[in-house]
Specification:
Chain B is mostly helical. Chain B has four helices and no strands. In chain B, helix 1 runs antiparallel to helix 2. Chain B is flat and about 65 Å long. Chain C has a single domain, classed as Cytochrome c oxidase, subunit III, four-helix bundle (Four Helix Bundle (Hemerythrin (Met), subunit A), Up-down Bundle), CATH 1.20.120.80. Classes of the chains: A mainly alpha (667), B mainly alpha (120), C mainly alpha (201).
């Protein structure tokens, strides 16, 4: 290996941006970065940003950062979707292609990179990001804890997620290609034989790095929920969102090692010439699909189970009743969690495992519908005879019931192997999973965001705009995806860069494109809602002292926003719906005696370690050995330094606590 | 130096048991191999060495990792049980599924299909 | 362990809760590591027969060699336990003694493993040869990488103990280290059984 290869690896001048999309992407980032820099300099907020936000170990701050980054990735993923559908509309006509493409305006290879990126971004960086944000914000408050079990690891987990975000966007700047393999980079397409460039390597490192962050976060949440609950809060007294977060995080810690190792095996094939999934020397490609779906299926339950918890909270709060059938809801969530490990083969019924294997997994897949349906029944029974308040979170819930049920029924259809053979990998499948994830997980995230927004900011989101956003989402969603169900039944295979005009399908694609434009409008209304709410925050202010919805669970006991240490004194819990009980008993605002608090210091170590690992990821993508070693060595050294740092906490004196409490409660 | 008597005993018992269990698994296999695979069928050997491995697992969990001695609630034990079940699912189900996939299309057929497009 | 009543926790209680959390968190991490090995075991089982005209398992594994490695690791697991006991007694001398022996045994284990690997590579049976060899080298190699990490960790801990003595945080770190080391020995039981013993059949 000569010196140039040792330092720069495969990097050449050609890897700098020179195509329209790489120039566009790089340009957008540069503009964003410069804009941000100007903003921070003009308002003199550099130090504030560093001290108050970036180096913080406060889960409330980290949660907001997760949500902010996830939102930006949401815009990028949505842009990918717009590109996909505009390509389909243009490609399904007799028009000749332009911008160098044979059909439409995207070449087949570019189109494949776009749908790959769309999938990875939406699953890993948007939904997981939003969820980690919400769980960070809400769960410590709900269980009466001051922080997570490992505050530093929380910060590290976020920065690793951010490093993953940078890695998945890095190809715009260096390399110019992402994997063109579908979001799970199926072997042997992702092997060196068919993908010699850096595209799949970017896929590998962005997912490994963010996956490490996710795993660390998962361990953190599980230990927190099991070990740091307030005295008196037994497991069966926990709020539903905490329960579902626990289940989701238990799934995360069990499945992300599988993903990490499977990607590592692919990495070994690509970097070290092993033969796990290659076409020659005995590789077994089907094993890749087996392993990756062992991760992939429980992953979709990771995404949706917390949203089920959000719906439970919302339904019970806004019907002014205790949730109906709490033990059965917990059992249902547990059932879904356990069953999610027994169904993964339904992603490859057609791979040829034979009738025995297919029928086992088909039956297990059908079983999973039962606890899910049970949950919906419980929510409906909670609403029954409740005094329902029609605020936008409840709208999202009703949106979920219609949408998710629709998608779920499509799923039951596909659980039957013979039927699946007809619609496997068709647009019917695409419609199914979008309906369940958007209708189930995403609507829940929107609902939760609206519900908990006043807790962390002190003012509510603009209600009317929220309702407009909801209706636009619902209408846009159905207009986008019902055509896909139809197209799937008619035989449209997924992932094709164009469908011949002779199919006559262009009107359906056009309908879907109209739907997506409506969805873009919906997101625009949501952004508008946020801006308007901030501008009108004095009118929308929460004047109830922290409990605008008359909530049931402990987070509503704190002020809005809560002090950075959450609770000056950890509350004692005597039943389910702890805060509601306290209000009924009249013990809600008992004066307390304050004491010194031991709290974690801010630390830049998370940023440094993630920074080194980001360097490692980019260097490994280009096989630049020197920088890989620097990145690895730097990360490990920083980790050891941090591990031997015995002074990571400070004492907040009782007098300070009292001052903060008085100031917050006087508002 | 004074040791916590109970813990020291625990390590010593675990150590001795592990050595015995390892040798009990090792010797039959060597016997089988040295007799040119004539004595002791493969199935018999599997039925000896696999259970022995699991017994040694329990021995080490109990005596080295002190697993039974947590105070309630026994979270470490619950975690171990859950993860171990998943480990079993991962390994056993993978073998079951992959064997079936290989049954319906043998490796040679698959190889020919991939290289020359033959078979289907 | 949670603070039972809503009283002000003492410094000892805070310390105990922190240690308990850390030990449990590390235990959960070990469980995730176990799952990664499970994937490797599953892959090894599936690819065991994919020898692609190369050597099969009963042609390349040396049973007495594997037994030696197993015994070395077992003894080192025992001595690491003794080292943990010494740490709880805050005895600097015996911590260094027992972890020193563990370190040397671990090094010997690595040496034997590396010699086995280099012999195979020299014969032309590297991980490039077949899927079976890829999965063998990766499974056993990953275990070896974990051992290496443990040894580096052990060295840093011993240096810290030699210079600063057995502090409270050091006791916690050594407990975590020996947890890790025991875990690696447990994984090795299964590598020994499934790879070497079953491989010889």
């Amino acid at each position: 290996m000569n010196w140039k290869e040792f330092i720069l690896g495969k990097l050449t001048w050609n890897d700098l941006p020179h195509e329209w999309f790489t120039l566009g992407g790089t340009g957008a980032f540069v503009v964003l970065a410069i804009g941000l820099a100007i903003f921070l300099t003009y308002f003199k907020r550099w130090k504030w940003l560093w001290n108050e936000w970036l180096t913080s170990t406060d889960p409330k701050k980290i949660g907001v950062m997760y949500i902010a980054v996830a939102f930006f990735m949401f815009l990028r993923g949505g842009l990918d979707a717009l590109m996909i559908w505009s390509q389909q509309v243009l490609g399904a006509s007799n028009m000749p292609g332009f911008l160098g493409a044979q059909h439409g305006y995207l070449s087949a290879d570019h189109f494949q990179q776009i749908f790959t990126a769309h999938g990875d971004i939406m699953v890993f960086f948007v939904t997981m990001g939003f969820l980690f944000g919400l769980i960070n914000l809400v769960v410590p408050l709900q269980i009466g804890a001051r922080d997570l079990a490992f505050p530093f690891l929380n910060s590290l987990g976020f920065w690793l997620y951010f490093a993953g975000v940078l890695l998945i966007n890095m190809f715009f700047v260096l390399g110019g290609q992402f994997g063109a393999t579908g979001w799970l980079a199926v072997a042997p397409l992702s092997e060196l034989q068919f993908h010699p460039g850096v595209g799949v390597d970017y896929w590998i490192w962005s997912l490994q790095v963010s996956g490490l962050g996710t795993l660390i976060g998962g361990i953190n949440f599980v230990v927190t929920i099991l070990k740091m609950r307030a005295p008196g809060m037994t497991l069966m007294r926990m709020p539903m969102f905490t329960w579902t977060s626990l289940m989701s995080m238990m799934l995360v810690i069990t499945i992300f090692p599988i993903l990490a190792m499977t990607i590592a095996l692919l990495t070994m094939d690509r970097y070290f010439g092993t033969h796990f999934f290659t076409l020659n020397n005995g590789g077994n490609q089907m094993m890749y699909w087996n392993l990756i779906w062992m991760w992939g299926h429980p992953e979709v339950y990771v995404l949706i189970i917390p949203s089920f918890g959000i719906y439970s909270e919302i339904v019970s709060t806004f019907s002014k009743k205790k949730i109906f059938g709490y033990p059965s809801l917990v059992a249902a969530a547990a059932g879904i969690t356990l069953l999610s490990f027994a169904v993964w083969l339904h992603h490859f019924f057609t791979m040829g495992a034979g009738a025995d294997v297919n029928s086992f997994f088909g039956i297990m897949t059908m079983f999973i519908a039962i606890p899910t349906g049970l949950q919906i029944i419980n929510w409906l029974f909670t609403l029954f005879r409740g005094r329902i308040q029609f605020v936008s979170p409840i709208y999202w819930f009703f949106g979920m019931v219609s949408t998710f049920t629709f998608g779920g029924m499509a799923g039951i259809l596909m659980a039957v192997p013979p039927i699946d053979f007809q619609v496997h990998n068709s647009l019917f499948l695409v419609a199914h999973f979008h309906t369940t994830i958007v209708g189930g997980a995403l609507f829940g995230i929107f609902a939760g965001f609206t519900y908990w927004f006043p807790k962390f900011t002190g003012f509510r989101l603009h209600e009317t705009l929220g309702k407009y956003a909801f209706w636009t989402w619902l209408v846009g969603f159905f207009i986008s995806f019902v055509p896909l169900y139809i197209l799937g039944f008619m035989g449209a295979t997924r992932r094709l860069d164009h469908y011949a005009a002779s199919t006559g399908w262009q009107p359906l694609f056009l309908t879907a494109l109209v739907g997506i434009c409506i969805l873009a409008l919906a997101v625009g209304i949501q952004i508008l809602q946020l801006i308007v709410s901030i501008v009108k925050r004095k009118e929308l202010r929460d004047t109830t002292g922290g409990d605008p919805w008359d909530g049931h669970t402990l987070e509503w006991a704190t002020t809005s926003p809560p002090p950075f240490y959450n609770y000056a004194v950890i509350p004692e819990v005597h039943g389910r719906d702890a805060w509601w009980e306290m209000k009924k008993q009249g013990t809600a605002h008992k004066p307390v005696k304050y004491h010194d608090l031991e709290l974690p210091k801010n630390t830049p170590m998370g940023i440094y370690i993630a920074g080194f690992i980001f360097l490692f990821g980019v260097a490994m993508t280009f096989h630049a050995t020197l920088f890989s070693l620097i990145g690895l060595f730097g990360a490990v050294t920083c980790a050891f330094i941090r591990a031997f740092d015995d002074h990571s906490e400070y004492i907040l004196p009782a007098a300070e606590v009292e001052k903060i409490e008085n100031r917050l409660r006087k508002k | 130096m004074k040791f916590h008597k109970g813990l020291l005993k625990s390590y010593i018992i675990g150590f001795v048991l592990s050595i015995i269990l390892t040798l009990c698994a090792y010797l039959p296999v060597v016997y089988h191999v040295n007799s040119h695979h004539e004595n002791l069928s493969h199935i018999t050997i599997l039925f000896i060495i696999l259970p022995l491995a699991f017994v040694q697992l329990f021995v080490q969990l109990l005596f080295f990792l002190h697993l039974g001695q947590e105070e309630k609630p026994r979270w470490k034990l619950s975690m171990l049980v859950s993860f171990f079940s998943i480990v079993l699912i991962v390994i056993v189900a993978s073998i079951w599924i992959m064997q079936h996939l290989n049954y319906n299309m043998s490796f040679i057929q698959f190889n020919n299909l991939m290289k020359y497009g033959e078979g289907f | 362990m949670t603070v039972k009543a809503a009283t002000i926790p003492t410094k000892e209680q805070i310390e105990e809760v922190a240690t308990d959390k850390t030990l449990f968190g590390f235990w959960v991490y070990l469980m995730t590591d176990l799952l990664m090995f499970a994937v490797l075991f599953a892959t090894y089982s599936v690819l065991h027969g994919s020898i692609y005209n190369g050597p099969s398992s009963n042609e390349i594994f040396n049973l007495p060699f594997a037994l030696t490695e197993t015994m070395i690791l077992l003894v080192s697991s025992f001595t690491s336990g003794l080292g943990t006991l010494a740490a709880h007694e805050k005895s600097r001398k015996f911590v260094l003694l027992w972890f020193g022996i563990t370190f040397l045994l671990g090094l010997a284990f690595l040496g034997l493993e590396l010699s086995e690997f280099s012999k195979l590579v020299a014969e032309g049976n590297s991980w490039h040869r077949s899927a079976f060899l890829s999965s063998f080298f990766t499974l056993v190699g990953t275990h070896g990488l974990h051992i290496t990490t443990g040894l580096v960790w052990m060295l840093i801990c011993m240096i810290s103990v030699a210079t600063k003595g057995v502090t409270k945080s050091m006791v916690r770190k050594l407990t975590l280290l020996s947890l890790f080391w025991h875990f690696l020995d447990i994984v090795w039981i299964f590598i020994f059984t499934i790879v070497y013993l079953m491989g010889a059949l």
